[in-house]
Amino acid sequence: MRLWYVAYGSNLHAERFACYLAGGRPAGGARHYTGCRDPRPARAQAPVTVPGGIYFAHRSLTWGGGMAFYDPDLPGRTAARAYLLTLQQFCDVMSQEMRRATGADPDLSRVLGEGRQRLGPGRYETVLKIGERDGHPMLTFTAPHGVDGAELNPPTAPYLAMLGHGLREAHGWRPDRAAAYLAGRPGARGAWSSAAIAALLASGHEDR
To answer: Could you tell me whether strands 2-7 and 136-142 are parallel, antiparallel, or unpaired per DSSP bridges?
Structure first.
């Protein structure tokens, strides 16, 4: 079985996401990823937008500051990147996001049938089905709560830079458009201005 993993945070950046597949530590990150049992690249990838929005909350052990989470009930649309993976690869990517050992293949029949499945209490342990593309389900993972139940926290400059690079890479967005999008998200709003993020992205910080 193949499915689309829909990335809306730092995995918008293909080089960073490659660390989840083949193993390694992304530039600017503090964490080394073990990789998947099947380390081959995604069979396909595509820029997508999905209903809902992202917000920044809690504290990332990798980047410091708030992490991106997806809330399908927020207004607007989320800019994302879909990677076509095997079911086994998706499970291994999910395990790494959950900070669990790879190698387990949880039964995802509930999310495939009902659209939502909670695999644990953690921040990325709730799996959502957000549509289909080319006959394959589109899945992502997020927190068990929406923005209303979140402890909002502004993201750090390196994390925003990684997201900005990913938006440019996946969607072709210029720094000013990516900056306006990120600055308007809950958690970043009021802590980061569009101008500050645009300057960060235009400086090439995201390439280091």
So the answer is: parallel
Supply φ then ψ for residue 149, to 5 degrees. -100, 15
Q: What is the pTM of this model?
A: 0.93
Number of Cβ atoms within 10 Å of the Cβ of 73: 10
Return d(Cα 131, Cα 136) in angstroms, integer.
9
Any bridge partners for residue 56, and if so which? 68
Amino acid at the residue 16: R
Q: 68 pairs with which residues across the strands?
A: 56
pLDDT tens string 19-76: 999 998 876 666 788 999 999 999 999 999 999 999 999 998 888 899 999 999 999 9
Residues 6 or more apart in contact with residue 145 via CB below 8 angstroms: none
